[in-house]
Design goal:
Residues 442-501, 526-595 form the Protease Do-like PDZ domain. This is Protease Do-like PDZ domain-containing protein. GO terms for molecular function: serine-type endopeptidase activity. The protein is α+β, with helices and mostly antiparallel strands. It is globular, with a radius of gyration of 25 Å. Strands 14-15-16-19-18-17 form a 6-stranded antiparallel barrel.
Length: 624
């Protein structure tokens, strides 16, 4: 059997290991882990993946398993940057700080062969004082019970100063934060920090500290150029194994488009062999000149490999900061909006009338992308802003290297226009398109933190999301899972609305029904049981397609239909009068999330009412 491989986020926290399995397109069993803080308070909700017998008497670091799904990135996903390959190695002018994240707890630790060192030549280096320790208190949403949150837990990580009262760290270090504090090297005072921007896709977060005392004597770090292979690299942070600053050394092993575990995206990444442990997340990596060349954020674990860590390069960091400066917020990396296939086969190129050994085939176009107006399935993309695309889906990179085509896309910003050279039925033409962020039918992360929900007569509705799939992985049907993985959003704002599963029975201690033996129903029911919904108790994790014959576009649309339609199957007056007692019996504060209280505005594009082949779910919650 092929050995399992893992990407681990560099966070250490109290609690058990957690697994967030989404989906893998690889033939080899592979998983992408981000170090997300999980405490003992969450042990009842998360699975223990592994316990290391050699780990210290601290708790095992929590990890979340993430993997790519082909519908989002396709064979060629987005990468960061705006300029051509000749500009890739230019030095950066923006100042940055060190990073790192350590979860207070157990963890599967890296090999101790890469020893952490603090030599005399480095110990007094000024750049070490720019690296700070991050203390974060997290309160994550409960996606199975969307009206409440999970128990609070804490974690620690690393960050670094970039000047102007700001610091950089990893997004996963401050995910679902309720309080963030930072502490400087050699100081015993913790200062309150505020999260200004959070880039999930690139796993970067921007923090600010208002205290003037914190910034006294501070010297912000500065960006260095993109390193070369075998360049020396020094990683600094506050990892597991101690409270003081840690320094590890290694070299640059590889530079290529890399899977980012936290954002389930693919951007430029630097692979190094310096030891990176839970707690290093958000900390800086330096070259021999003391310039920051990136931010440590994840590691690769496999039975077949050792000492593989990853650093977010300064090109990606600069993109994040410039995006924030342009818009006053982080807008994200854009995408081209197509699923592509390599054209290595000569017979395939001949069939498509491609005269030379170049180009990639457009297999599918996302309906929500601007490119859907100018590119069709079956077209061959042979150039991007004048840069020729090879038949393996690569483009020139620096002087003598090649890199994935998606790297050029990620160099752009949201709203940028690009020129594509395409071959259609043997004819070459050029088309223009505007780049936008990808519209996810099933999002990896919930904007605003708390999922939306609607309760009608004891039936709980919520949009399908990847965190919900993770929590309900043992009960999500194969058809619904397949739709979540491979279907594309037909219009902006489209959601898959499902009936939520695993509602607690009052008076029982309950978290996730999957933890009970098969056939054991003591954990909960599928609906909030009441006389008004007799016969519907076993409805679970099914998509709701229509209400009174009207196709449901999203959770806001469903709430609107519920408010202004008449019930057929459930008596409206009886259902509404029963709602108050149901909420009281189950200790639920409101029948719907706060974002559903406003007036519904239909901004979506009207779609055909015809049902697609293979569509499934409850065709009619019928109001009477």
């Amino acid at each position: 059997m092929a050995a399992n491989s893992w990407f681990s986020v560099l966070t250490s926290t109290g609690g058990s290991l957690t697994s967030h399995r989404l989906f893998s397109t690889s033939l080899r069993p592979s998983s992408f882990f981000i170090p997300k803080a999980d405490s003992q308070n969450q042990n009842h909700k998360r699975k223990v993946l592994n316990k290391s017998s050699s780990s210290p008497p601290e708790k095992v670091a929590g990890k979340q398993k993430f993997s790519r799904r082909s519908k989002n990135e396709g064979p060629f996903a987005n990468a960061d940057g705006r300029s051509s390959s000749s500009e890739t190695g230019r030095s950066q002018s923006t100042a940055i700080k060190s990073f790192g994240l350590q979860k207070k707890g157990k963890g599967i630790m890296l090999d101790s062969k890469d020893q952490q060192v603090e030599t005399g030549s480095i110990q007094d280096a000024a750049f070490l004082n720019a690296v700070v320790k991050v203390y974060c208190t997290h309160t994550a949403p409960d996606y199975s019970l969307p009206w409440q949150k999970q128990r609070q837990f804490t974690s620690t990580g690393s960050a670094f100063m970039i000047g102007d009262g700001k610091l950089l760290t990893n997004a996963h270090c401050v995910e679902h934060d309720t309080q963030v504090k930072v502490k400087k090297r050699g100081d015993d005072t913790k200062y309150v920090a505020k999260v200004l921007a959070r880039g999930v896709a690139c796993d970067i977060a921007l923090l600010s500290v208002e205290s003037k005392e914190f910034w006294e004597g501070a010297e912000p770090l500065s960006f260095g150029r993109l390193p070369r292979l075998q360049d020396a690299v020094t990683v600094v942070g506050y990892p597991l194994g101690g409270d003081t600053i840690s320094v590890t050394k290694g070299v640059v092993s590889r530079i290529e488009v890399t899977s980012y575990a936290h954002g389930s995206s693919e951007l430029l990444g630097i692979q190094i062999d310096a030891a990176i442990n839970p707690g290093n997340s958000g900390g800086p990596a330096f070259n021999d000149d003391g310039d920051c060349i990136g931010v440590a954020f994840q590691v690769y674990r496999s039975d077949d490999a050792e000492n593989i860590g990853y650093v977010i390069p300064t090109t990606v960091v600069s993109h994040f900061l410039e995006d924030y400066e342009r818009n006053g917020k982080y807008c994200g990396f854009p995408c081209l909006g197509v699923l592509l296939q390599k054209l290595e086969n000569p017979a395939l190129r001949a069939c498509l009338k491609v005269p030379s050994n170049e180009g990639v085939l457009v297999r599918k176009v996302e309906p929500t992308s601007d490119i859907s107006n100018v590119v069709k399935e079956g077209d061959v993309i042979v150039s991007f802003d004048g840069v020729h695309v090879g038949c393996e889906g690569t483009v020139p990179f620096r002087s003598s290297e090649r890199i994935a085509f998606r790297y050029l896309i990620s160099q752009k910003f949201t709203g940028d226009s690009v020129e594509l050279g395409i071959i259609r039925a043997g004819e070459f033409m050029k088309v223009q398109a505007v780049l936008k962020p990808r519209v996810h039918l099933v999002p990896y992360h919930i904007e605003g933190g708390q999922p939306s929900y609607l309760i009608v007569a004891g039936l709980v509705f919520t949009p399908l999301s990847e965190p919900l799939i993770e929590e309900e992985e043992d009960s999500i049907g194969l058809k619904l899972l397949t739709k979540a993985r491979y279907s594309l959003a037909k219009f902006e704002g489209e959601q898959i609305v499902v009936l939520s599963q695993d509602i607690p029975i009052p008076g029982t201690w309950w978290r996730n029904r999957a933890h009970y033996p098969k056939g054991d129903d003591r954990g909960g029911k599928m609906v909030l049981a009441n006389e008004v919904n007799i016969g519907y108790e076993d409805m679970s994790n099914e998509q709701v397609l229509k209400l009174n014959g009207t196709r449901i576009k999203n959770i806001h649309h469903l709430a609107h239909l519920v408010d202004y339609n008449i019930l057929v199957v459930l008596e409206r007056e009886e259902a509404m009068s029963a709602s108050a007692s149901i909420l009281k019996d189950y200790g639920i504060p409101a029948e719907r999330s706060s974002d559903l209280l406003g007036q519904y505005v239909d901004s979506t594009i009207e779609q055909s009412e015809a049902t697609n082949h293979g569509e499934f779910g409850y065709e009619g919650l019928l109001w009477a």
